From TrEMBL:
PANTHER family: ALDEHYDE DEHYDROGENASE-RELATED
Molecular function as annotated in GO: aldehyde dehydrogenase (NAD+) activity
Enzyme class label: oxidoreductase
Gene3D superfamilies registered for this protein in UniProt: Aldehyde Dehydrogenase, Chain A, domain 1, Aldehyde Dehydrogenase, Chain A, domain 2
Pfam families assigned to the protein according to its UniProt record, in alphabetical order: Aldedh
Record-annotated Aldehyde dehydrogenase domain positions: 20-481
EC numbers for this chain: 1.2.1.3
Protein's UniProt name: aldehyde dehydrogenase (NAD(+))
Keywords of the record: Oxidoreductase
Catalytic activity, as annotated: an aldehyde + NAD(+) + H2O = a carboxylate + NADH + 2 H(+)
Annotated family: Belongs to the aldehyde dehydrogenase family.
Length: 487
């Protein structure tokens, strides 16, 4: 079987207990295509309280049997789901693309990431067995990794498919039931997964999909029977979620939030490599990437050469902008008018004394939300463009003299998601890598991730980690069982 929906037949129902059902709430979401601003549909359901309760009821009912299912059986279901995602890659990518605007290469990356997340976590099911401790003191101690129950994943629009895998993969592998709440800006591809969920063999209630906006997310975050929320999105929403979790049932929370990631380029680096990574980092997905290297610091000895090459690279990127439905396009529009105006606002204000516009800054075309890759130089370190997450194809570049000075500036922020260092001196690279206050650091690379290693931020960029064994830990709780051996 394949995905039953397409761009000509968009999904308009919630997916609860393995069935597409009409929402009880009468509220709807309207969606527009960012490549031309045209209306896609105005009747995507906005799940309300009764819908959320129905999804939680179903998930709660499904939980006891799901957590007891044998590892082989559960692994089979998750692996089949990964296969089905790949087999339906093009349909899913199209349903994502029409409201996100990201070109097919990004869609392919996301689908691959999602399928890999399900496979990776499926492989872990019988290898996450808990611990036991010696009985010489008269007590045998066994630690079980127990699932939490009904869990929820609230995901953003900028990686609508990949983030599903990063959350649902470990949640379901460890025996939890999972309710997915996609972003109101990118609901179609998520909703379309219902057919595949059923075909893969997930029992009814195990994997639910509720579309809606922040109000639906808030219902999940404050629900008394949801035991965990894994959230990816902005810092302000992340803080609200943690508050709702605390005020309701102290549900567990994982937060993957924003960033303003530095790349520090030293005189002794391979210049072309540094230019390539930093230019790719800020233009992938039109700069709408949480861990994009958006602050580029270049040591003064190579500053002029770097700027010349970086500007060239960004101008070349501008030529890759186009209709996301064309295979040759590498950079699409920003996600919608609101995001476009937000980024444009940063660019306009940036030119009023915050820095020098070195490249880009203009809208591309007259329809759709396209923007040139944009670089500011000579930025004031206290300015808005230097300090705030812009979440578009806009970077700031600044020169520096010493390692000490630039590490202070790099860390002088409440963000702490990703950082990069470019140098051929391994001692310096490792010293700087350990000095960065961030969850992830690239040496001679930046803005990348792996399924096997912890993904997430320090400081206000997040709480907890996804990927690797950390993701499984985040969806389970250790239970200690103590056996009196002298009884
Ligand atoms: P957002 O916070 O506006 O929305 C994210 C999700 O939260 C959406 O599904 C939205 O409906 C929901 N939401 C909104 N208000 C809510 C509320 N009060 N209660 C519960 N849910 C609510 O973020 P966005 O604009 O979709 O995404 C962009 C942000 O996400 C950027 O800051 C980016 O850096 C961050 N992000 C982080 C990562 C990461 O892994 N660290 C990955 C991707 C994006």
């Amino acid at each position: 079987m394949s995905v039953q929906y397409s761009t000509k037949n968009l999904p308009k129902q919630l997916f609860i207990n393995n069935e597409y059902v009409d929402a009880k709430s009468s509220k709807k979401l309207s969606l527009y295509n960012p490549k031309d601003g045209s209306l896609l549909s105005d009747d995507v359901p906005l799940a309300g309280e009764q819908d959320v309760d129905a999804a939680v009821d179903g998930a709660e009912k499904a939980f006891p049997a799901w957590k007891k299912m044998s590892a082989t059986q559960r692994r089979g279901i998750l692996s089949k789901f990964a296969d089905l995602i790949e087999q339906n890659a093009e349909s899913i990518a199209q349903l994502s693309r029409i409201s996100l605007g990201a070109p097919s290469a990004f869609g392919a990356f996301e689908i691959g990431l999602c399928a890999e997340a399900f496979r990776y976590n499926a492989g872990f099911i019988d290898k996450f067995g808990g611990e036991s401790w010696p009985q010489e003191d008269g007590f045998l101690k066994i630690v079980r990794n127990e699932p939490l129950g009904v869990t929820a994943g609230i995901v953003p629009w900028n990686g609508p498919i990949g983030t599903i895998g990063l959350k649902a993969g470990p949640a379901l592998a460890t025996g939890n039931c999972f309710i997915l709440k996609p972003s109101e800006k990118t609901p179609y591809s998520s909703l379309a997964l219902g057919t595949l969920i059923k075909e893969a063999g997930f029992p009814p209630g195990v994997f639910q999909i509720l579309t809606g906006d922040g109000s639906t997310g808030a219902l999940l975050a404050s629900h008394m029977r949801v035991r965990k929320v894994s959230f990816t999105g902005s810092i302000s929403t992340g803080k609200k979620i943690q508050e709702m979790a605390a005020k309701s049932n102290l549900k567990r929370v994982t937060l993957e939030l924003g960033g303003k990631s530095p790349a520090v380029v030293f005189d002794d680096c391979n210049l072309d490599n540094a230019v390539e990574w930093t230019a790719n980092a800020i233009t992938a997905n039109t700069g709408q990437v949480c861990f994009a290297a958006s602050r580029v610091y270049v040591q003064e000895g190579i500053y002029d050469k770097f700027i010349e090459k970086y500007k060239e690279a960004m101008k070349a990127k501008a030529k890759e902008i186009g209709d996301p439905d064309e295979k040759s396009t590498n950079i699409g529009p920003l996600v919608d008018e609101a995001q476009f105006k937000r980024v444009q606002g940063f660019i306009e204000r940036g030119q009023q004394g915050q820095g020098t516009l070195a490249v880009g800054g203009k809208r591309v075309g007259t329809t759709g939300f396209y923007l040139e890759p944009t670089v500011f130089t000579d930025v004031d370190p206290k300015s808005e463009i230097h300090c705030e997450e812009i979440f578009g194809p806009v970077s700031v570049v600044k020169s520096f003299k010493t390692e000490k000075e630039i590490m202070e500036l790099s860390n002088n922020t409440n963000f702490g998601l990703m950082a990069g260092v470019f140098t051929q001196d391994i001692n310096k690279a490792l010293r700087v890598a350990s000095d960065f206050e961030s969850g992830m650091v690239g040496i001679n690379c930046v803005s990348l991730m792996f399924m096997s290693t912890p993904f997430g931020g320090s400081k206000e960029s997040g709480l907890g980690r996804e990927c690797g064994i950390h993701a499984l830990r985040a969806f389970t709780e250790p239970k200690t069982i103590m056996i009196n051996m002298n009884y």
